[in-house]
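Dear support,

We are seeing what looks like truncated structure output for some complexes. This example has two components. We would appreciate it if you could run it in full and send us the complete token output so we can diff it against ours.
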Amino acid sequence: MNKTMEPTDHLEVVKKRKKKIPTEVSIFLVLVGIAILFEILGWIVRGDSFLMNPQRLLIMILQMSIIGIIAIGVTQVIITGGIDLSSGSVLALTAMVTASLAQQSEYARAVYPALTNMPWVIPLAAGLIVGALAGLINGALIAFAVIPPFIATLGMMVSARGVARAYTDGQPVSMLTDQFTWIGSGANPVIIFLAVAVLFHIALKYTRYGKYTYAIGANPQAARVSGINVRRHLIMVYAIAGLLAGLAGVVASARAGTGQAGMGLMYELDAIAAAVIGGTSLAGGVGRIAGTVIGALILGVMLSGFTFLGVDAYYQDIVKGAIIVAAVVVDQYRQRRRLKAA
Amino acid sequence: MATMTAGALAPNTAEFILEVADVRKAFPGVVALDNVQLRVRPGTVHALMGENGAGKSTLMKIIAGVYIPDQGEVRLNGLPLELHGPLDALQAGIAMIHQELNLMPFMSIAENIWIRREPLNVFGMVDHGRMFKMTEALFERLGIDMDPEMEVRKLTVAGRQMIEIAKAVSFDSEVLIMDEPTSSLADREVEHLFRIINDLRAQGKGIIYITHKMDEVFEIADDISIFRDGQFIHSAAASDITSSEIIKLMVGREVTQMFPKEEVPIGDVVLSVENLCLDSVFENISFEVRAGEILGFAGLVGSGRTNIAETLFGVTPPTSGSISIDGKKEIISSPHQAMLRGLALLTEDRKETGLFLGLSVIENMELAVLRDGYTRATFVEQNRLDQECDSMKEQLNVKTPSMEERIGNLSGGNQQKVLIGRWLMTNPRILILDEPTRGIDVGAKAEIHKLITKLVKRGVAVIMISSELPEVLGMSDRIMVMHEGKVTGFLDRSEANQVNIMQLASSPVKPTVIED
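Here is the complete output from our reference environment:
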């Protein structure tokens, strides 16, 4: 294609033809670097290998799967230029509702004694619906009441947690059926996480839904003038984010074998961190699911690595906070470069 | 009132309160000002005139310290100024009333006027009592009757404009710059403003007054300087020049560019608009466009041209009036509905409402057709779309290393072609082009003009909005001229020229029909 260009155009373009490494690749290198760092520190501090321990790696990935599922929804919200602070609380709410519909009949103190021993689809569907509804409310508040996403989802974050507590007066919901807890057993959470990741990777890249999501984040006014129904689309994106938080709630309660109102505390921040570390720009218009998956893995490796080295949890939080800020600084730098190019 | 002769304009440093010498200012891609001169005598009102884009606002921003000139200098009372920001200018004695209002709505009038200069009491706290007294004193001097404690948000636009004026006067500056201060004022308020200006003039201040309104110029100005295409053209005493001379100097250039206008058979009426109104923006707009016709919209920035385009395209639905397509009345309440009815709008501001700067060329081009066509079972038919975009790119001669290139890396002309491509892919029957060639180089301009000609040959009805008179004159079959939200006249291609367009664009409707 280049051969048809006239010489003058080369001048214009040549200076911008620096070698570009895709964001995902550079984030992946960071992941590898951190893993190697822990490997080396492991031999120095503990005389043991960090990576050569499949058990540890599996636990690490399992831990990150639930946050990863949330992060896939949050990534899409951030691509539109918004934010979702409610996902951790929505997880807790759906975990409660789901668990209450998945109890065994032998259990004397079931929440709905008439609705026990139901097939696993029922609690799963209920969880997804509750999550989607919460997201729908977020979206409607943002699109029609024109409330900033930060505030709308902050309200949902507080309220959903309250509903989760009020649902059983703060009592945990336990004794769940085996067919339901199977959803969270073994490597199933990882499989669900990866399936969701592949699904939305395709949706963002190859469907109209994805293209509109990027367009709205890049320039909402231009999107509107190009005939996109921006409001309707935003509602859909927030509803999908809620649906995924609901799915995470189902997986979390199935894995724990119980629904508790305190589940998923601060998960929204880990999910946002995974997206931002993965290269999603808080300014909107930029971001990929693959990056978010790697971002979630980076958080997981950090957590697992620090625990392995015996670093106190307080210090882990300090480092995690610093990493999130560093990721945003990198994003700001990239953004400025983009603007300069324009 | 000024009785000084043109001879008083001869260079004599001590004689001028403000002097701009040989100023040049370039922005990436354009020279906004080149070799510009301006001399303001104390105790006079100096009017600046010129078309949109003549460089007046840039010059004022240089004098007010917003921009730093690349060359030349600004002298105040004969002494060169070195300004690094608006604050420097204020401290030196130059105050500016901005065209756009910069007040804080939830603060009181007094707080707005004295912001950053609040009187303090012995404890270092803001002394509101004294602040209100100072405001009252200022208002008394200016004859303004407003409560200093009132919140600014409760004021009308005209009221806010008066506060801006009072604020500028409160600095007791030597030089006061007013950029279209009457644009939102009613007649009575304009009179009030002129009384204030007369007072300031009597105190020996220098006032720079930018306006497009010819009648105002002759009422208030002592001297007039005319700018065109970033250059100083002429300066004269108001008593020595006529309005038609000013217009000639403002438009100046002849239509030297070649426009590829061809005679195209004009077909049936495609779009007809009747008594279209949008509250306090435009009123009673009626016109029709035929297949194969180019209807030009001329008028100054802010005359409502762009608003009409946006209303036709469903961005801001009208408050009353009707739009008919092929003789059938249509209600268009969103851009998508407009697209379904065969309309397309290339928006005025490429960066604000056109481009997705962070996205690639193809992502920018394909966006408008995704909704209707090119999707099967929710999946975008990317292959077919790629081919269509590629052939559109060839057809429009878009120069880009690849369709994946980020659009921000393309030149303005190529960006514009991509946006035109976005709309051509929807196969519009009515194409509205708002400033289709603004800020792009001559070569790309000519290509876009050729393209427009090709489209009307295919029977597309085109509405072309442009601030460049030669373009409007060169391309249009008919020209609709607007002034402050009203149509002031239609001109046929054969009778239109720069002078009669400018006259219609800068004068209110002749009160032959209704008076209110």
